[in-house]
Amino acid sequence: MDQKRCAVASKESLKRIFTVPEAPDSTLSKIELEISSNLAGFLNENIAAIEKPLHEIEKDFQSAVIPEDPTFVSAYAQDIMEQLVAHSVHTAAPSFIGHMTSALPHFLLPLSKLMVGLNQNLVKIETSKAFTPLERQVLGMMHHLAYGQEDSFYSKWMHSAKTSLGAFCSGGTVANITALWIARNRLFKPDGDFRGIGAQGLIAGMLHYGYKGLAVLISERGHYSLGKSVDLLGIGRENLIGIKTSEDNKVDVGAMREKALELESQGVKVMAIIGVAGTTETGNIDPLNEMADLAEQINCHFHVDAAWGGATLLSTTHRPLLKGIERADSITIDAHKQMYVPMGAGLVLFKDPAATDAIEHHAEYILRKGSKDLGSHTLEGSRPGMAMLVHACLRVIGRKGYEMLIDRSIKKAYYFADLIKADEDFELISEPELCLLTYRYVPKKIKQAIAEADAATRLDIFASLNRFTASMQKRQRESGRSFVSRTRLTPSKYDNQPTVVFRVVLANPLTSGAILKDILAEQKELAKTDPVFKKYLRKYM
After folding, report:
1. What's the longest Cα–Cα distance across the chain?
2. pLDDT of amino acid 1
3. How would residue 438 be classed by pLDDT, with cut points 50, 70 and 90?
4. Host domain of residue 514
5. Distance CA 483, CA 194 (A)
6. Which of 78, 170, 412, 421 has the most CB atoms at less than 10 Å from its CB?
7. What whole-number distance in Å separates Cα of residue 475 and Cα of residue 77?
8. Residue 495 within a domain
9. What whole-number distance in Å separates Cα of residue 335 and Cα of residue 307?
10. Could you give the CA distance from residue 280 to residue 292 in angstroms, rounded to a whole number?
């Protein structure tokens, strides 16, 4: 009787997994071949179209016990195909337009494999060698894109052991933390007997400089990572002050100035003001030039969170939308958003190369003074060589290629907005400035009911529409045909009431006009059978 062959842990088996590739006819090799030859087909075929409930998926991941015995690679590969890949999210699908993800250039797959195989650690030259100057070059390229300094500036500073033009990070959150870390440390720099905040801490710094408090001012549309930043840096979430936005979802700089002067009169120092270049919810860009003027007026750090919109600088046509970004002290950009790089590639740039002096740190065994080790100016220690993939895209796609991608995405957003406005049963909530917009499904008769209703009835309709929109979004996601996300805004036309809306991000170059029409048609069909609509809104039809 045949018995199932079992994997065993032995010197030979352990040596084999480090030195011998899988056989060509193995499960893993077949997966690798299919991904290499037809990634889109692989994803379409292997990711389940109908959503499986999370609680069902969790059943495959219940055990907290590390397996005692090994598993054959082919068996494991089959398991992850069934339990993991099948229930992943098809973020590359052209109809997946709800979040800041997209299809990726195909050449990044083998390059990613090469990057993993090299397994470089960018904390130190001894573990990265050529990856260090490559990363410095990418930072220089992005710095030049944003700040446009002379060639002599980059010849002097790009590969300087003393400074860094920026830092690669795992994403925008760490980039924003790094920017505010530098802003804080430069504010509380060494002075007389005070040896600096890095040495003596925040309380000693507050006492020395005589501040009663600290504050950071941001648009009410600011990213949630900034709350984590001020928490981590000891400033406190309550001192991250959100300033109201105007009807076009841009921060009201006049209101920000009033708040800054009010705080100053109370002995509270505004450590930084933050402009957003591409808000997560609506994609709008704050008036950066006006904010730069304000930062100069109150003598504070000016940071621009351009995690989403920073790539727009690559477009000659749309670059003027970010006018004033070149005056920022620091800028966050996520390459894993509109630069079409895999997740895990964010960066922060500093106008002044000496800015990173404020956070410089050394360790005798790894980060010695005078070395060109990137780790001496970064929050993270061990890091992969993600700059290689950004470098690849900058070279293979080029600025003109990026310009075409960005211009087409924005044009697509305007096209989708026109489709929405042309249909009397939809309502555009926020006009696109980049390639984001928000809208909702509101039948014509419901719009009429809102216009004719008294205050109490209007509130009831608003609440019912919120339930309905949330229900529609969930049902569309579960159907597996397409995906839009949802968020909550407070439009003035609806008495500033919290309003649940559909949110779309049109960055995927494979998303077509026909797909956008299909998404609206699908939403109309879903509305006909929506239980929330029948229960709460049918009476207004």
Report:
1. 87
2. 36
3. very high
4. 408-540
5. 55
6. 412
7. 31
8. yes
9. 8
10. 21
Q: What CATH number does the domain containing 510 carry?
A: 3.90.1150.10
Nearest 5°: phi and psi at 459? Answer: -60, -40
pLDDT at 317: 98
CA-CA distance, 83 to 324, in Å (whole number)? 48
Averaged over 388-417, what is the pLDDT?
98
pLDDT digits (tens, 9 = 90+) for 57-116: 999 999 999 999 999 999 999 999 999 999 999 999 999 999 999 999 999 999 999 999
- Helix (H) / strand (E) containing 39: helix 39-46
Q: Let me know if 118 is exposed, middle or buried by CB neighbors in 10 A (0-12, 13-18, 19+).
A: middle
Partners of 347 in the β-ladder: 168, 333
On whether residue 530 sits in a domain, the answer given is yes
d(CA 216, CA 174): 17
pTM for the model: 0.94
Specify if 455 maps to a domain.
yes
pLDDT at 50 over 90: no
Strand order in the sheet with 268-276: 166-169, 346-350, 330-334, 301-305, 268-276, 213-219, 240-243
Q: Would the pLDDT of 366 be above 80?
A: no
Element (H, E) at 391: helix 387-396
Segment (H or E) for 472: helix 455-479
Number of domains in the chain: 1
Identify which of 422, 417, 458, 471 has the alpha carbon closest to the alpha carbon of residue 439: 417
Looking at residue 363, its pLDDT comes to 55
**Residue carrying the six token digits 């019912």:** 464
Q: Which residue has the tokens 């002379």?
A: 150
Q: Which of 313, 317, 322, 252 is nearest to 285 (CA)?
A: 322
- For residue 493, count CB atoms less than 10 angstroms from its CB and return exposed for 0-12, middle for 13-18, buried for 19 or more: exposed
E-strand stretches of 33-185: 166-169
Region 385-399: what's the mean pLDDT?
98
Evaluate if residue 393 carries a pLDDT over 80.
Answer: yes
Q: What is residue 119's DSSP assignment?
A: T
Tokens of 4: 């199932």
Residue 498 lies in a domain: yes
| 250-269 mean pLDDT | 97
Query: Measuring CA to CA, which residue among 150, 104, 103, 89 is closest to residue 392?
Result: 104
Predicted confidence (pLDDT) per residue in 484-495, tens digit: 999 999 988 888
Q: Which residues pair with 241 in a beta bridge?
A: 217
CA distance 541 to 525: 17
Q: How many residues does the chain have?
A: 541
Q: CB-based burial of residue 329 (10 Å sphere; 0-12 exposed, 13-18 middle, 19+ buried)?
A: buried
Using the predicted structure, report yes or no on whether residue 538 has a pLDDT greater than 90.
no
Q: What is the dihedral of CA 434, 435, 436, 442, to 10 degrees?
A: 120
